[in-house]
Amino acid sequence: MKYVYQDSTELPVQRDFIEDLKSLIDITARVIPLENSIIELKCKNKEALHELNNRITGMNIFEEKLSSLVNKLVKDIGTEDLRPCTDAILLTCKENLGQKREILETESRKIENGIAQECQKIESKVLEVLAPFLISGIYGAEKRFELSNSTSGVSGEMEGSVSGLQYFYKLWFTEEPLTVERLIDSLSLPMWTRTGILRKEEKIKMQNLSEFLVSSLEYDSERKIRLVLENKKANRKFKIEGGGLKYFVYEDNKEITADKELGALIDMKILAKIPEKVKNYLQTNIRTYTLSKVLIDEENAVSTNQIFDCLKVIAEQYGVVVHECLAKGLNKEEITIKMEEPDGTRTEKYITKAEMYTHLADVGSEGVEIAEILGVDSRAQIKDSKYLIV
């Protein structure tokens, strides 16, 4: 499937942009009320905690002033006969106020714990709502994957980042161990070996690694890779790292590519095909995933109530494509794209500015601001973004 503007030029993102727009609107409509409920909960309980703290502070001040006043009276009168009486007064005050303080402090802790638990529930819901969208719906994001292989299967993490926004996923793949053959088909690398029955000689042998396990894998948006391959006995290890047409190959800690004879037998064009195969594996084999964390300017966006700021960053990327759709489209009130099948058949898909604005305005002022960033409000100004995928 190929995605183009109405003037037949290709979209910078080869995705169903209209569906992505609808998803962004839906996510905004679902997550903003959740974030606002957390803010409201914190504000409401902050007032209650403030009142309790003021009462505790008042008791402390009273006890301190009473002690000063009583001691001053004793000093002014100048007799120790009053000391038993003043000690009794201060002790009674301390005991009574101490009991009351303990009650108020217990109530304060109960409120704080209740807030934390309630907020945690809503924050988990926020991550749950965002999870299916952020994993692939953020345009222009730099992504980095780290996978590890074990007898129970393949698991790993993904980190995405764009314009101060970072998000992290835990990933689980198919249950069977990942082999070289399953990841990149067949692969052979040269190595020195000693052969001969009567006279041992150093000779070059091409080692077939197809049955080796991929013990760890790293991949990023710049198509750079780092693979660690081990045989099933874990006594032979190869490492491949690099990108483009330049790769480094190691057997254990010895660089094969630095050896003139061995390096000459490595076909860099074959290695250059590995990133694409790794990408295909990542796209087709993720079984389950969990969004674990979202940061904005290195702060936890969920716990600090900055998810709306995250949505604005995402909307800026989408706004650039919206602007191009309107500029290259026939109807300036519709965002339209064309979808081209492999056989050349084309269909159009669109969403109106009015429809988008109506749905976003229902969210409140935050939704209106997102609409302006997207360019579906007359006051909006679309800015170019260097982060847009090309």
Beta-strand portion reads: 25-35%
Helix fraction bin? 40-55%
Secondary-structure element string: EHHEEEHEEEEEEEHHHEEHEEHH
The assigned structural class equals: alpha+beta
Instruction: Give the biggest sheet.
Output: 10 strands, antiparallel
Number of helices: 9
- Write down the overall geometry: flat
- The total beta strand count reads 15
How would you state the average pLDDT, rounded?
88
Report how far apart the termini are.
17 Å
Radius of gyration: 33 Å
Could you list the spans in which at least 5 consecutive residues all have pLDDT below 50?
A: 381-390
Strand order of the largest sheet: 11-10-9-8-7-2-3-4-12-13
Number of structurally distinct domains: 3
Organism: Methanosarcina lacustris Z-7289
Protein name: Chromosome segregation ATPase
Overview features:
alpha+beta; ten-stranded antiparallel beta sheet; three-stranded antiparallel beta sheet; 9 helices; 15 strands
Describe the 3D structure.
This is Chromosome segregation ATPase. The structure is a single chain. This protein is of the alpha+beta class and 390 residues long. It has nine helices and 15 strands. The protein has a ten-stranded antiparallel sheet, covered by helices on one side. A three-stranded antiparallel sheet has the order 1-14-15. Strand 2 and strand 3 (153-162) form a beta hairpin. Helix 7 (307-328) packs parallel to helix 9.
Q: Gist?
A:
The chain is built from nine helices and 15 strands. The chain has helices at residues 17-77, 83-137, 180-184, 260-264, 268-271, 274-285, 307-328, 353-361, 365-374, and strands at residues 2-4, 142-150, 153-162, 165-172, 188-195, 201-208, 213-220, 225-230, 237-243, 246-251, 254-255, 288-296, 299-300, 334-340, 346-352. The strands form three sheets. The chain has a ten-stranded antiparallel beta sheet, covered by helices on one side. The protein has a three-stranded antiparallel beta sheet with strand order 1-14-15. It has a two-stranded antiparallel sheet with strand order 5-6.
